[in-house]
Amino acid sequence: MNKTANQMLVIFGASGDLTARKLVPALFNLYKAKQLPENFVVLGVSRSNMTDGEFRKKVVQESTYLKDKVKDASLDFINTFADKFFYEDLGEDYNKVYNKLATRISDLNNKFSTGENYIFYLSTPPSLYEVIAKNLSEQGLNNETNGWKRIIVEKPFGYSLETAKKLNIGLQTYFNESQIYRIDHYLGKETVQNLLVTRFSNSIFEPLWNRNYIHHIEITNAESVGVEKRGGYYDKSGALRDMFQNHLLQIVSLIVMEPPIDASAQEIRNEKVKALKSLRIMRDEETLYNNTVRGQYLASVIDGKKVKGYREEEGVDPNSKTETYAAIKFFVDNWRWKDVPFYVRTAKRMPTKVTEVVIHFKSPHHQVFKNSDMNNKDNQLIIRIQPDEGILIKFGVKVPGQGFTVERANLDFYYSNLADNNVMDAYERLLLDAMQGDATLYARADEVEAAWEFVDPILDYWKNGSDVNIYGYSSGVWGPTNSDRLLEGDLKWRNPGENLADDPGFCVIK
Ligand code: BG6
């Protein structure tokens, strides 16, 4: 276990949902696992008027998000955790002189000996990132002469390439790149990190991981929920900005990248940037038409319950053209991946919640068992990111009896079968990494920009293109059938079920 230095976590936007829903439960897990440093303080900062006690009640003692986690803990244990929390009201505006805040930070530091090591977690709208960074720097709170200073920013990191660049320049004016941690919670998922291990610690996979053996790659990210209460945000964002530009392109970069020299943050992130830069950018309308499909969910009845269409959701423009479904086909222009198509889909209101990567291998180049129905049944390596986390290999076996009839069999591994299967929650892992100064699982400025570089022309085409459509799909189905046109030849999307080993198209009626 790495040692975590004494420190203070200052959360901006502390009265918001993310603090109570994700950050505090993650901190509680770390507290339970004895992973918090001996001297540790959380200072919540926002514009609500609250006392320390009220803040503790809100995010710890009376938080619905902690209920399950604290149910077996003693009152003493919970209160010792709650006592680490303090609150500072910024008043009306984030853009003000932070001298009062700086004094509070300094007082808490002196009282609790946090070594002037501070993490500033910005859980605020991105429009405030630069303002907060500037005001912190004016108080010398970026200065690392005594103790380190780190700043964590949440997505969305920019709205386009241009805005992302501006934001990077803005933040880097006040903090060094090595102090900036851009969070992408998918990188905190154990199964996403396992992509690296699967590839680079198994000599049975890596030699096959290229255009000679791989036919195509498919990534599906499906959610059964709609936009829930985030219509206002989502309508300005859409699936491509919300999921694809960040989480899915992060997964793509781990699949595409070359082996790093070692497992350091610098080397891994260098390779990821190279991978993202090798995605072939689609520039002309014909290419964009042929390789992208967007859709929007419509009202439907699921399991006997009426669900709203996207345009009827709260905060959504009734004439909105924002996509809740995005399917993109693309190629990677480098030696390893030439001509291998990548198919990536993400959507809301799908039949189930699932994220998986499917590596489809080429058929054997000489078919020995001609009369078997092996054709069109490729070998597949299915990497299940969530749920039912695990890995499945589909391969051919002989059906017992005369002749050579070949059938598909499954070889599977489930995380839940591991003796030590305590999978850290993504935020827990990422917070601990930042507390220890490990930025491997955080996105670097050039990574974020490379991802936007690929996404920008698609967004522009979807907004301004002459022949671009948005297709409706009923809530609860696998998106618009129009997306089938992206697939080459006889290919079909693998529509995964709730369980890793379910056959495609598998559907449970409740
Ligand atoms: C967030 C998106 O980043 O990821 C949400 O803003 C989405 O729209 C969520 O629901 C999905 O995360 P997970 O971990 O549940 O797959």
TrEMBL record:
Enumerate the residues binding NADP(+): 47, 155
Which intervals hold domain Glucose-6-phosphate dehydrogenase C-terminal? Answer: 196-493
State whether keyword Oxidoreductase applies. Answer: yes
- Domain Glucose-6-phosphate dehydrogenase NAD-binding, by residue range, is 10-194
Q: What cellular-component terms does GO give this entry?
A: cytosol
Q: Which reactions fall under this protein's catalytic activity? A: D-glucose 6-phosphate + NADP(+) = 6-phospho-D-glucono-1,5-lactone + NADPH + H(+)
What UniProt keywords are attached to this protein's entry? Carbohydrate metabolism, Glucose metabolism, NADP, Oxidoreductase
Pfam families membership: G6PD_C, G6PD_N
Q: Which pathway does it take part in?
A: Carbohydrate degradation; pentose phosphate pathway; D-ribulose 5-phosphate from D-glucose 6-phosphate (oxidative stage): step 1/3
Q: What is its EC number?
A: 1.1.1.49
Q: Give the family per the record.
A: Belongs to the glucose-6-phosphate dehydrogenase family.
The protein, known as = Glucose-6-phosphate 1-dehydrogenase
Gene name? zwf
